[in-house]
Design a protein that fits this description.
single chain; 261 residues; alpha+beta; seven-stranded antiparallel sheet; 2 helices
């Protein structure tokens, strides 16, 4: 009987121990879950703060966009008003100097005013400027020069890879180019419009003594163009050059052009 009681007591003690171990494990898991929950709540609070900040930024940007829209609307009205004033002034001048013009001639002049003069007076700018990034050695005759570094290219008329400017807007343009050559070089360069030579320069850096340095030459033309015309700089078509073209931070070989009217 005593033996049975001892066994019963032992089993009870073991059971109590197991229950205590299980309870301790549960408490540890609960602590871990509580810690994880606090971490998630902290992250959630951070996300809410970020969302709040983004909403503030978004609202500010919306307000700025609305302000810009309002300014653009006012500027558009002002431009329209100024255009109309210019049309009226030109028409008044035309009526004073050309009372004998018939209706057809008046219509042609008005179209020229509205389609050609006014757009250029209010922002239609065409211009480009580019220079060579590095020297070119022995290019040969009839070689198109590619000015590959584009600093200005409004209306994207100039192609730095091919060296060709394609006229985006008809009108009168100024084109100017400067080419620098290395010591002991002789070149003649042409500016060509639609395959027709419009101008040429020569540059000679042949030295007769121990001192030899680079030399440069500049050419400029003013020419009427039509949309789609091409303009480029090339070595002379028949005069065989020798030497090399120089272009660095001490002196650039460059090409530029812009619409003047």
């Amino acid at each position: 009987m005593k033996s049975i009681q001892n066994w019963t007591m032992l089993i009870a003690l073991v059971f109590i121990h197991v229950v205590c171990v299980f309870a301790n494990n549960q408490d540890s898991r609960l602590d871990e879950l509580e810690k994880l929950l606090k971490q998630q709540m902290f992250k959630l609070t951070e996300q809410e703060l970020r969302i709040g900040n983004l909403e503030v930024i978004n609202n500010a940007q919306k307000s700025e966009i609305e302000l810009l829209k309002h300014r653009d609307y006012n500027q558009t009205k002002e431009i329209t008003f100024l255009k109309q004033r210019m049309i009226n002034c030109l028409r008044d001048e035309d009526s004073l100097s050309g009372d004998n013009l018939d209706n057809g001639e008046h219509s042609i002049k008005e179209n020229a005013i509205e389609k050609n003069i006014l757009p250029r007076a209010f922002g239609q700018v065409v211009a480009f400027y580019a220079y060579m990034s590095k020297p070119q050695g022995n290019p040969g005759a009839r070689h198109t020069l590619a000015f590959d570094v584009l600093r200005t290219n409004i209306h994207s008329g100039y192609n730095g890879a091919t060296g060709i400017f394609t006229v985006p807007t008809s009108g009168v343009y100024i084109f100017t180019f400067t080419v620098r050559v290395i010591c002991n070089s002789h070149f003649s360069f042409e500016i060509v419009q639609n395959g027709i030579v419009q101008g040429a320069v020569v540059v000679d850096a042949i030295s007769q003594d121990a001192v030899c340095s680079s030399a440069h030459s500049t050419g400029t033309i003013v020419t009427p163009t039509l949309r789609g015309d091409t303009v480029m700089i090339r070595t002379h078509s028949t005069n065989q050059p020798f030497g090399g073209i120089q272009s660095n931070d001490q002196g650039r070989s460059s090409f530029a052009g812009w619409l003047i009217g």
